Amino acid sequence: MSQEAVLGFDVGTSSSKAVLVASDGTVLGSETCEHAVSRTPDGIVSMDARMWFEEFASLGAKLLGSIDARLAGIGVSGMGPCVALTDSSDAPVAQAALYGVDARARTEIEELTQRFGADSLLEDRDSCLTTQAAGPKFAWFYRHFPQLRERESRFYMPASYVVKQLTGEYVLDRQSASQCTPLYDPQTREWDKAVWAEIAPNTLPPTLLWSSEMAGTTRADLGIPGIEAGVPVIAGTIDAWAEQESVGAVNADELFLMYGTTLFLVGNADHRVRHASMWGTTGTRPGIYNMAGGLATSGSLTDWMRQLTGETDYSVLTREAAAVPAGSEGLLVLPYFEGERTPIQDPDARGVIAGLRLHHTRGHLYRAVLEGTALAVRHNIEVMEQSGLHISHIACAGGGLTADLWPQIVTDVTGRVQTRRKYHIGASLGDAFMVAQTIGMADSIDEWNPVSKEFVPSADFDFDALYQDYKALYPSTSGIMHNLAARG
């Protein structure tokens, strides 16, 4: 007899991943497909939304066609906040605008900030307007696609688009909605209909649900082998918050750190938290609020190093970097190679490699890049704690954890104990767990994904002085950065 299993699916920046998990948490199989985003010199980063469901169908069919299992539920997530606007039949009006790496709406950010007031936005919406906010991107689309003012449209993020194709239900989870500043009201945890009518008057707001809440069941006409009609589908959420679920970092005072194309941080609190340079959001569960932050580059920066050096094997670069002493023998990197998100919020920031000498090798450079991202994490944590957030420990997940060096460097730089679990598959595992918990198949993530390693800070090198140099380097070079950015 076929065993019951749940399917988790996540759309990332550079790939999509699906995982099939048995009721006891055993990962029965996983499938991945890579894809590319479109980038333009003027800061537009986009993707065809139709790809999101096409990849779900392809990966889901592969898994269910190769493993003898009866599908009991589906959970989904995706990068975000994204803005995909479609017509009433779900045909895209244009390619979807991606999350904070997409800087198209700078003018609209300025206009809406002037309209609502920076202080009022922070007080009422828990976040100021930055490239991470979805609201200004709605305004950008309405400015550049005037047909949106003439007919009804719909709004999707990756998870909600897949849910719509699976179930026919037009929904969005509250966590994702809370990143649509200023369209969402964190006090009521509902859409602000007056603001919505002003910014996106002809776009129908999706119904809001909690991330683990049932959105609907699969349609009978899907045509995906292995997925029958009537399979429960949850609302899902943004990938970092699904990964947070995969490692159990969902309680107040915990910090989740995601190692991916970008490093992303989510701190939890039992009350609303805010800071002008960070992102205050609603959590995936009732009663939890978040302060989030994210780097613009991290895993993408290590990939750049790999391509630049001509080394195809990450393990070789990691081994060379591990042989370099902490502090990279005088090298310091500002990892702002595509601008920076939190806490400096500067899309025109640029990467800096300071202290280069002729004896430095690619191992030195690679280690300095890892240390630079770790220093950026420390900067984010410092601002979070200044805002009143208490952080007891760090739980981590993501593709950057295949080797111990990077998380150990982050632990050493931040001085924080960090835990890694048995599976660090990422968001797709969190998706699977959320739906399993919703349908009564699973209880605790500790049973599904126990802690496998604890990283403890080393006393071999004092990063405090290097951290002060790190914080001083940006303000002392930002003027030159901006001049260079203006030249391309």
UniProtKB/TrEMBL annotation:
Q: Does the keyword Cell cycle apply?
A: no
TM helices/strands, residue ranges: none
Q: Which GO terms describe its biological process?
A: D-xylose metabolic process
> Boundaries of each Carbohydrate kinase FGGY C-terminal domain copy?
257-433
Domain of life the protein comes from: Bacteria
Q: Where is the Carbohydrate kinase FGGY N-terminal domain?
A: 6-240
**GO MF terms, alphabetically ordered:** kinase activity; phosphotransferase activity, alcohol group as acceptor
Q: Which UniProt keywords apply?
A: Carbohydrate metabolism, Kinase, Transferase, Xylose metabolism
What is the similarity comment for this entry?
Belongs to the FGGY kinase family.
The protein's name is Sugar kinase
